[in-house]
């Protein structure tokens, strides 16, 4: 609730529209307000503790709220990358995130909720291109944590994690499983139901948004 108060105080500069929607339903005092607030609070719970998602009934309002969150996060990420490129270019003479048609396509795809394992794989490929390939080595050793997670999430899908000696391979599988579990509450992508993929997407995007805001602030 402290974060709710902070976001409401920010007004038009708020960084999380969910909290503003929460406050608007309180001020409007409409019958549907309680249901909307419950949906918002549940989404915040799932961001902090993804494992709770599988224990609760997946209502239409919850799914709609999750889709709205994904669309909003995708748009915010596009705006933040544009801001970062402007600030980075002012100091270094070129964009941090290389602007190409592929980059634009990948960014636009972020706002579409994923509903299957195949769509999740495509999401991770797009994130990998944006947050790994398009920046190259321009961040040096200062790569934000979620950018590293994106690389690890792609490794789970696109590489043989069992390759190598027994103990080393086991440690790698355990590490990668922990990365995915942080966003999903489950140890691997094939261990969750399709209905849970939007939650995973929303959590990854929220973490990326947070790291992008920090990166943008560091370039001022």
Helix/strand layout:
Elements: H1 2-10, H2 17-28, H3 33-48, H4 60-92, H5 101-109, H6 117-133, H7 145-158, H8 166-184, H9 197-218
Helix pairs in contact: 1-2, 2-3, 3-4, 4-9, 5-6, 6-7, 7-8, 7-9
Brief descriptors of the model:
220 residues; mainly alpha; 9 helices; 69% helix; 0% strand
Your description of this structure?
By secondary structure, the protein is an all-alpha fold. It has a domain at 72-218. The chain is 69% helix and 0% strand. The chain has nine helices and no strands. The protein has helices at 2-10, 17-28, 33-48, 60-92, 101-109, 117-133, 145-158, 166-184, 197-218. Helix 1 (2-10) packs across helix 2 (17-28), helix 3 (33-48) crosses helix 4 and helix 4 packs parallel to helix 9 (197-218). The longest helix is centred in the middle third of the chain and has 33 residues, at 60-92. It starts with a helix and ends with a helix.
């Amino acid at each position: 609730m402290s974060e709710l108060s902070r976001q409401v105080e920010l007004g038009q500069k708020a960084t999380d529209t969910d909290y503003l929607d929460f406050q608007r339903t309180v001020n409007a005092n409409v019958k549907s307000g309680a249901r909307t607030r419950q949906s918002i609070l549940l989404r915040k719970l799932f961001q902090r503790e993804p494992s709770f998602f599988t224990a609760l009934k997946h209502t239409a309002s919850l799914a709609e709220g999750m889709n709205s969150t994904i669309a909003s996060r995708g748009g915010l990420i596009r705006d933040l990358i544009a801001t970062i490129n402007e600030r980075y270019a002012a100091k270094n003479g070129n964009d941090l995130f290389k602007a190409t048609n592929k980059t634009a396509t990948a960014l636009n795809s972020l706002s579409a909720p994923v509903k299957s394992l195949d769509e999740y794989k495509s999401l991770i490929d797009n994130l990998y291109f944006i947050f790994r390939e398009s920046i190259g080595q321009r961040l040096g050793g200062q790569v934000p944590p979620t950018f590293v997670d994106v690389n690890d999430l792609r490794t789970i899908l696109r590489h043989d994690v069992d390759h190598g000696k027994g103990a080393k391979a086991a440690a790698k599988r355990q590490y990668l499983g922990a990365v995915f579990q942080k966003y999903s509450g489950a140890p691997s992508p094939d261990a969750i139901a399709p209905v849970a993929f939007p939650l995973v997407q929303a959590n990854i995007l929220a973490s990326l948004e947070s790291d992008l805001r920090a990166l943008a602030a560091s370039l001022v």
